[in-house]
């Protein structure tokens, strides 16, 4: 995944890196970074915040710098590629991926780092709480995902943590897909960790909070069609035109 030219010197002083892929995120990014800073202040380890500006057309990059993050640039609009670009510049051994519209707590950060440092886990994720009022269908959908996530140890993309060596060993997030890259990573890292008796785990006690904006952008019928399409034809995640739920922003949002 990484050439020798791409690798960055990684001082031992940085224990963990929090990586945020961001495309046109001036609205949500301040709250996300502020929550991360507060969480980091309650942890004794040294960490860093990296924002990967994924070819934004707004002031996302400049704003992230003002907020104290290290900003790197990825010109190709693809979530997995943005995550990987951020990871290439990360200096910590422990990698934590947080979406730009997601709020983490100090308890969640501490628990994720504790699991990685303990040597008992190779990585994991967290159950997710969606902000805002949800329709019954979406609420049941979130409950269904939570069950699948915990049962099969699958991390939601808004919060994923793992050891750098495992991340690099499996090739990072798959750039062959435009969605569900966190599922592939979860499975690959879990298989690797199992060989060392280090499972991939989902944190239940400290949920991550993510915005429900996508559920307001797209009608229930469109969400249902997308779900059925991807369940019946999962290979479609390899084509960006079928992944509008993750890439299209109605009304210029």
What gap, in angstroms, lies between the N and C termini? 33 Å
Q: Please give the radius of gyration in angstroms.
A: 17 Å
Strand coverage percent: 15-25%
Secondary-structure arrangement, i.e. CATH architecture: Alpha-Beta Complex
Low-confidence stretches: 1-12
What is the CATH homologous superfamily assignment? Answer: Spore Coat Polysaccharide Biosynthesis Protein SpsA, Chain A
Q: Which shape, going by the Cα principal axes?
A: globular
CATH class: Alpha Beta
Q: Tally the beta strands.
A: 8
Q: What is the makeup of the main sheet? A: 8 strands, mixed
Q: Provide the spatial order of strands within the biggest beta sheet.
A: 3-2-1-4-7-6-8-5
N-to-C SSE string, H for helix and E for strand: EHEHEHEEHEHEHHEHHH
How would you sum up this structure in a few lines?
With about 250 residues, the protein is α/β, with parallel strands linked by helices.
From the structure above, extract its key features:
19% strand, Spore Coat Polysaccharide Biosynthesis Protein SpsA, Chain A, 40% helix, alpha/beta, globular, 253 residues, 8-stranded mixed β-sheet, disordered N terminus
Helix and strand layout, with pairings?
Layout: E1 16-22, H1 29-41, E2 47-53, H2 60-66, E3 70-73, H3 79-88, E4 94-98, E5 102-103, H4 106-118, E6 123-130, H5 136-152, E7 159-163, H6 164-169, H7 181-194, E8 200-210, H8 213-217, H9 220-232, H10 244-247
Parallel strand pairs: 1-2, 1-4, 2-3, 6-8
Antiparallel strand pairs: 4-7, 5-8, 6-7
Helix pairs in contact: 1-4
């Amino acid at each position: 995944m990484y050439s020798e030219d791409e690798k960055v010197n990684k001082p031992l002083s940085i224990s963990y890196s929090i990586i945020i892929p961001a495309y046109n995120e001036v609205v949500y990014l301040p709250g996300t970074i502020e929550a991360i800073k507060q969480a980091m202040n309650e942890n004794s380890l040294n960490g860093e915040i990296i924002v990967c500006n994924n070819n934004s057309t707004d002031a996302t990059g400049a704003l992230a710098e003002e907020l104290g993050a290290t900003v790197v640039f990825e010109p190709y609009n693809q979530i997995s590629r943005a995550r990987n670009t951020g990871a290439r510049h990360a200096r910590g051994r422990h990698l934590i991926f947080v979406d730009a519209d997601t709020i983490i707590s100090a308890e969640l950060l501490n628990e994720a780092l504790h699991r990685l440092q303990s040597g008992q886990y190779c990585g994991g994720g967290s159950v997710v709480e969606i902000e805002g009022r949800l329709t019954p269908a979406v609420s049941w959908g979130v409950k269904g995902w939570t069950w699948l996530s915990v049962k099969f140890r699958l991390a939601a993309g808004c919060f994923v943590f793992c050891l750098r060596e495992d991340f690099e060993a499996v090739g990072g997030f798959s750039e062959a897909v435009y969605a569900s890259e966190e599922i592939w990573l979860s499975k690959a890292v879990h298989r690797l960790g199992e060989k060392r008796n280090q499972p991939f785990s989902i944190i239940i006690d400290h949920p991550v909070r993510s915005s429900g904006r996508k559920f307001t952008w797209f009608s229930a019928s469109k969400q249902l069609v997308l779900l059925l399409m991807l369940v019946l034809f999962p290979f479609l995640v390899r084509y960006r035109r079928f992944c509008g739920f993750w890439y299209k922003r109605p009304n210029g949002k």
